[in-house]
């Protein structure tokens, strides 16, 4: 399975995914693509020998169709079987998602369907939740609403701040995303639920 990974920042989830695709793993990273040419994750991918590219969204000045056409063309050149969104901070249009329907997954830092969108950790703390976590799901036109492929849970601790909870959830993301990717690469689409850690 050929995997393209889309990022916008440092690429910690990209690194976890890429580092998992070794040995007998049935998938290989064929492209790390960012909407930010200065994204730190591009250097991390390059250091691992993974081809990289950037399609900067800023010159498109809000023309999402033109930006996504360039993104699509860059992806097509790499011929991925699966696209993993890993901290890609652009909301994709329905048209783009439709082109890659069933072949694009995302990791989200909450236990969906709770807390779609941003500020998930602050919202979990404000609600008094006793656990938080992350979700890998198929990407559909509705934001953070596709079929759930896996979840990992972490405890919310007394004295947690959004930052401390985010750090704990990020560790869970680094366990969950590679595990779900491997299952998908092996042809298994059953939901994976990792125990609380």
From TrEMBL:
Residues the entry annotates as binding N(1)-(5-phospho-beta-D-ribosyl)glycinamide: 11-13
Its job: Catalyzes the transfer of a formyl group from 10-formyltetrahydrofolate to 5-phospho-ribosyl-glycinamide (GAR), producing 5-phospho-ribosyl-N-formylglycinamide (FGAR) and tetrahydrofolate.
Source lineage: Bacteria, Pseudomonadati, Pseudomonadota, Alphaproteobacteria, Rhodobacterales
Formyl transferase N-terminal domain ranges (all copies): 1-181
Pfam families hit by this protein: Formyl_trans_N (PF00551)
Organism the protein comes from: Roseivivax sediminis
Site (Raises pKa of active site His): 144
GO molecular function, one term: phosphoribosylglycinamide formyltransferase activity
Stated name of the protein: Phosphoribosylglycinamide formyltransferase
């Amino acid at each position: 399975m050929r995997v393209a990974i889309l990022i916008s920042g440092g690429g910690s989830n990209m690194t976890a995914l890429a580092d998992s695709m070794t040995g007998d793993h049935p998938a290989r990273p064929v492209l790390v693509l960012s909407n930010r040419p200065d994204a730190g994750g591009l250097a991390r991918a390059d250091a691992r020998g993974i081809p990289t590219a950037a399609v900067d969204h800023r010159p498109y000045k809000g023309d999402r169709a033109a930006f996504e056409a360039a993104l699509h063309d860059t992806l097509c050149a790499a011929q991925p079987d699966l696209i993993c969104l890993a901290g890609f901070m652009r909301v994709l249009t329905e048209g783009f998602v439709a082109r890659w329907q069933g072949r694009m997954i995302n990791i989200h830092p909450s236990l969906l369907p709770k807390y779609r969108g941003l500020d998930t950790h602050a919202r979990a703390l404000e609600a008094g939740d006793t656990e938080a976590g992350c979700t890998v799901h198929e990407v559909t036109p509705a934001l953070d609403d596709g079929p759930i492929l896996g979840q990992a849970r972490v405890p919310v601790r007394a004295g947690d701040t959004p930052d401390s909870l985010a750090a704990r959830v990020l560790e869970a993301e680094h366990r969950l995303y590679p595990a779900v990717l491997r299952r998908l690469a092996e042809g298994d689409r059953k939901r994976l639920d990792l125990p609380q850690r």
